[in-house]
């Protein structure tokens, strides 16, 4: 193949591409085998965010809070206690999960402060796993696009809205219609009025914290004897492991499952890493906002569990399933108050999560498109017409709506909605292992303003290996209790990661061979001064053909450019 050289694109029309920034930079171009082709001057199209729309410390805190605080803290505690049969161990698991989350946060801070641009794990994995070229990026892209939906919280919003209106309804047509309306509202708001989208996100974040504080202080009142039910005496024999009506006796599998559930209740702490390019002074903002949010949520989660145990008898708590917070409100404030207020609280919590997830995941989708990884990258990467990632928001909306309307109610739907959490354990395993490799391999010249203590990184690595392997352990009860074999869940999750390998083979091997071109990766300096990757198509030359200035296919502008 002839030498590939980078080129400077013609001037961009400022009237139609005012949000694109053309920046000249030193670049390196590699072929599909990872061999350096050239190191000359190149350029990349940027998608600069106006300073007035960038997110400060407060906004970043609530962006994280809104994704972390979903329905988990209002429902999961019952399952945790049912698995362990111990008040002390249940509360301890919530505290331990908070510390494990902080270990993961430290790993992401080290990566995020060293590579301060939007995209999160995509950037970190690309820094570590450079061979085979494009493979890890393809795996991450497939996982993020197919599983980065907001169907679960959108549907929960629909069901809790109906419950708050006095019309409780199981999963069906009406809740799904409300879910689609919720998702559509969020996407339109972020696309057309991004400032108001962030304001609403912040407001709902404040609301969530206030609801948890209400539960915490009501719990203190319960401990002092102010409640509408007799003292449940749950703190007598605090560390005792008991077996009673609906709780205890589950064995090692039950404990492992309980930890799994608690850890997933903390998910969302990495949300700000996805939008680093839209943070004001990103390194300082992330360094302050992320630990503040995670520590705050950990304290609130632990104290909320203390509050639940202070007001709900053990048997009721174990059987409460998704209405544990409802039982707490009933025992503290009476039946009518609990019935009216809690569904509305949870519904607002759900839409806050949808706002935060849609904002962050659309930015990751746009980063993938800007680099040419997705089909029709020019469209998905566009910031027209509102200087927002409207097309990437539409992609997020499209996948979410398909998941909402396609599967029938019941096990099939629950399986799909819950599936998105599992492949993340493998992604985080690669991230943690990659950081250990960078730290130990001196030739990598790794440096970051944040330094994670090596044992902390190892703990996070082992945690994610645990999360990846545990679902394969047979349960003590029915293997088909959820309507499908217990091993189907992790197997399908791994299959989705392997689908990324298939996509990589088609994108970088099969189609280039059929189309007479090769994929090259060009590193350029973008408008923020950061080094970014652009994937391009270079025509292959026949035997005896030579060219001094080959055309390079720009996957963003979808055209060949000449030097």
TrEMBL record:
Subcellular location per UniProt equals: Membrane
Topology in the lipid bilayer? Multi-pass membrane protein
Any one GO CC term of the record: membrane
Parts of the chain that traverse the membrane:
55-75, 87-113, 134-153, 173-191, 203-226, 246-267, 288-311, 342-360, 388-407, 419-440, 452-474, 486-506
Q: What GO molecular function annotations does the UniProt record carry, in alphabetical order? A: L-amino acid transmembrane transporter activity
Whether Membrane counts among this entry's keywords is yes
By its UniProt entry, which Gene3D superfamilies does this protein fall under? Amino acid/polyamine transporter I
Q: Which UniProt keywords apply?
A: Membrane, Transmembrane, Transmembrane helix
This protein is called Amino acid permease-domain-containing protein
């Amino acid at each position: 193949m002839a030498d590939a050289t980078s080129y400077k694109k013609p001037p961009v029309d400022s009237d139609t591409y005012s949000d694109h920034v053309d920046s000249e930079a030193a670049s390196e171009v590699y072929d599909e085998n990872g061999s350096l082709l050239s190191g000359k001057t190149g350029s990349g199209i940027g998608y600069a965010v106006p300073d007035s729309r960038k997110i400060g410390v407060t906004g970043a805190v609530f962006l994280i809070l809104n994704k972390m605080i979903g329905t988990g803290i209002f429902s999961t505690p019952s399952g945790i206690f049912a698995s362990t049969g111990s008040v002390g161990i249940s509360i301890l698991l919530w505290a331990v999960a908070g510390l494990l989350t902080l270990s993961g946060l430290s790993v992401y801070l080290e990566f995020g402060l060293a590579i301060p641009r939007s995209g999160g794990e995509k950037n970190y994995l690309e820094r570590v796993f450079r061979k085979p070229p494009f493979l890890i990026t393809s795996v991450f892209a497939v996982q993020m696009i197919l599983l980065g939906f907001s169907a679960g919280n959108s549907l929960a919003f629909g069901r809790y809205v109906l419950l708050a209106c006095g019309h409780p309804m199981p999963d069906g047509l009406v809740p799904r219609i409300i879910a689609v309306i919720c998702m559509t509202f969020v996407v339109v708001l972020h696309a057309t009025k991004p400032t108001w989208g962030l304001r609403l996100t912040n407001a709902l974040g404040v609301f969530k914290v206030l609801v948890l504080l209400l539960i915490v202080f009501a719990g203190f009142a319960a401990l002092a004897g102010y409640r509408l039910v007799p003292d449940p005496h749950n703190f007598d024999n605090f560390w005792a492991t008991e077996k009673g009506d609906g709780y205890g006796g589950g064995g090692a599998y039950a404990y492992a499952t309980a930890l799994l559930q608690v850890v997933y209740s903390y998910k969302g702490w990495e949300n700000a890493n996805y939008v680093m390019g839209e943070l004001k002074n990103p390194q300082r903002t992330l360094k302050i906002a992320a630990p503040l949010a995670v520590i705050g949520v950990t304290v609130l989660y632990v104290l909320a569990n203390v509050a639940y145990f202070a007001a709900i008898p053990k048997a009721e708590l174990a059987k409460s399933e998704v209405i544990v917070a409802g039982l707490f409100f009933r025992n503290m404030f009476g039946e009518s108050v609990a019935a009216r207020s809690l569904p509305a609280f949870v519904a607002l919590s759900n839409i806050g999560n949808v706002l935060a997830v849609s904002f962050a995941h659309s930015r990751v989708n746009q980063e993938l498109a800007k680099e040419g990884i997705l089909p029709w990258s020019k469209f998905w990467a566009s910031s027209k017409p509102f200087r927002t990632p409207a097309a990437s928001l539409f992609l997020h909306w499209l996948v979410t709506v398909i998941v909402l309307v396609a599967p029938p109610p019941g096990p099939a739907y629950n399986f799909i909605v819950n599936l998105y959490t599992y492949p993340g354990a493998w992604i985080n395993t690669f991230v943690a292992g990659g950081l250990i490799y960078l730290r130990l391999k001196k030739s990598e010249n790794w440096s970051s303003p944040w330094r994670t203590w090596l044992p902390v990184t190892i703990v996070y690595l082992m945690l994610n290996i645990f999360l990846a392997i545990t679902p394969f352990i047979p349960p003590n009860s029915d293997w088909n209790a959820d309507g499908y074999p217990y091993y189907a869940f992790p197997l399908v999750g791994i299959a989705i990661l392997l689908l990324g390998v298939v996509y990589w083979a088609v994108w970088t091997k099969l189609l280039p061979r059929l189309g007479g071109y090769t994929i090259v990766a060009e590193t350029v300096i973008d408008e923020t001064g950061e080094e970014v990757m652009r994937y391009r198509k270079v025509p292959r030359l026949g035997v005896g053909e030579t060219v001094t200035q080959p055309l390079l296919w720009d996957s963003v502008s979808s055209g060949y450019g000449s030097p």
